[in-house]
């Protein structure tokens, strides 16, 4: 029940944040390659708006490519919806039980929070994920999950400089916990926000 509450709170917070964006910010690029902020927002509510049979039909249309399917739907839905609708879809479904096929509710929180970072970090808004939610996400970091997102954490030690958390062993990569989370999720973290190695070589 607590995890359900964390998910609902994250969705409501992000919906409120989206409500405050300017049109220029809605059309700005996100950390997701090829997606503006509005495509990310549309994608975040995909699981609420499409039934499983409808999604399977879309997957067949995309010739079995999940990436091709989500990319096409994000662009189509972002073009068809107003910015108010994109925010409302998150808010109105704050307690929706949707979760990714693998990972359950914790993965649902990760989906929402990381896509939220795709928006806020790209826009330079400085939003911090509340620590109770962030701790759940940090507990989900693993070599397997990182590989799914195209990140190889072999020989790397992630070290947060704002909370007591680390993962792995090897060459240290230091930064805020949520920037390290983005790194583990395969995102290109803005230049200078992560430090690699004991001597502090900035990543960019």
Automatic annotation (TrEMBL):
Question: Which top-rank group of organisms is this from?
Answer: Bacteria
Name any one Pfam family assigned in the record: MDMPI_N
Record keywords: Isomerase
Question: What Gene3D superfamilies is this protein classified in?
Answer: dinb family like domain (1.20.120.450)
Domain Mycothiol-dependent maleylpyruvate isomerase metal-binding positions: 8-95
* GO MF annotation, one: isomerase activity
SUPFAM superfamilies with a match to the protein in the record: DinB/YfiT-like putative metalloenzymes (SSF109854)
* Designated name of the protein: Maleylpyruvate isomerase family mycothiol-dependent enzyme
This protein's species is: Streptomyces cavernicola
Q: What is the lineage of its organism?
A: Bacteria, Bacillati, Actinomycetota, Actinomycetes, Kitasatosporales
